[in-house]
Design a protein that fits this description.
The chain is an alpha/beta fold. It has a single domain, classed as NADP-dependent oxidoreductase domain (TIM Barrel). The chain is built from ten helices and ten strands. The strands form two sheets. An eight-stranded parallel β-sheet has the order 3-4-5-6-7-8-9-10. Helix 2 packs across helix 3 and helix 7 packs across helix 8. The N and C termini lie far apart (46 Å). It binds NADPH dihydro-nicotinamide-adenine-dinucleotide phosphate. The site of NADPH dihydro-nicotinamide-adenine-dinucleotide phosphate has 27 residues, from helix 9.
Length: 282
């Protein structure tokens, strides 16, 4: 039973990684992201997921400084953007993120997308390893990697990322990728855990929720946790930030887990990592 918002898993490099956090994509910098982060921290969230691409690292950092919680009790993920792939540019991108966040170190640094340039992808990873060695980042991982991208990175560098953050939800449960990750000791974080907001696509979740006095969003988030998937649901609204965190006091039955597992239909909302070129310069 996963019964605490502060539960962690141990990554392949020994880092304790929170299973639950706040997503911040499409939150404006300044008041919007600062308020959302502050509410989240008040409700017990200890992990905030941002990215240089989101343009809101400064606001996340401000909320962290204002909250009074010890730095080592909080976990910050940010990401190197596509335009910064390459060794030196990744080092510079990390420095820029540290400055924007106002932090001495980043807890989890992810390669945001794999891109099509395999050499540049490997150089980006080499720089991320150096940043980890220099203790500017505690853990390194990737995002939007398919099993083929992971396989290439592992065979080229002899190292496996600690985390792969990918689109994942009941309609798109990424079973093959999850199996690959399990076989190689890579943790999975779901982005778009609430179907990117398209909850109406799964009316079954609301119906199941009635049995527990929970909402559709709470049922889906609980499904992720019981499947061993880490989650970073995004909301800018105070009541939903609290609602999304109120999932540690119930457990979906095997029958309800099976019913949600059966919803897979391949629907996804994000770009295909194999063809995604947005933001890349080479
Ligand atoms: P989510 O699945 O978290 O859904 C967010 C949407 O759902 C928003 O429209 C939000 O609206 C709405 N919502 C949140 N809570 C509820 C609720 N309880 N009831 C009804 N609606 C709700 O999608 P995201 O795409 O934001 O993914 C989560 C996070 O993952 C991102 O914020 C980001 O940090 C990360 N991400 C990473 C990507 C990558 O490439 N690595 C790509 C995309 C996201 P409102 O805010 O109005 O409440």
């Amino acid at each position: 039973m996963i019964n605490s918002i502060t539960d962690t898993i141990t990554l392949n490099d020994g880092t304790a990684f929170p299973r639950f956090g706040l997503g911040t994509y499409k939150m404006d910098d300044g008041r919007t992201v600062e308020d959302a982060s502050r509410w989240a921290l008040e409700y017990g969230y200890r992990h905030i997921d941002t990215a240089s691409f989101y343009g809101n690292e400064a606001g996340v950092g401000q909320a962290l400084r204002d909250c009074g919680i010890q730095r080592n009790q909080m976990f910050i993920t940010t990401k190197v953007w596509n335009a910064d792939h390459g060794f030196d540019s990744t080092l510079r991108a990390c420095e820029a993120s540290l400055r924007a966040l106002g932090l001495d170190y980043i807890d989890m640094y992810l390669m945001h997308w794999p891109g099509q340039n395999v050499d540049n992808r490997r150089r980006t990873w080499d720089a991320m390893q150096q940043l980890q060695h220099q203790q500017k980042v505690r853990a390194i991982g990737v995002s939007n990697f398919t099993p083929e991208h992971l396989n290439d990175l592992i065979s080229a560098t002899g190292t496996a990322p600690s985390v792969n953050q990918v689109e994942l939800h009941p309609l798109f449960p990424q079973k093959q990728l999850r199996q690959y990750a399990a076989d190689h000791g890579i943790a999975i974080t779901a982005w778009g855990p609430l179907l990117h907001g398209h909850l109406a696509q799964v009316p079954e979740a609301a119906a199941i929720g009635e049995a527990y006095g929970k909402t559709a969003a709470q049922v889906i988030l609980r499904w992720h946790l019981q499947n061993g998937i880490c989650i970073i649901p995004k909301s800018s609204r105070q009541h939903r930030i609290r609602e999304n965190a109120s999932i540690f006091d119930f457990e979906l039955s095997d029958a309800h887990m099976a019913a949600i597992n059966a919803l897979e239909d391949g629907t996804h909302y994000g770009a295909d990592p194999d063809t995604m070129t947005y933001g890349f310069t080479s």
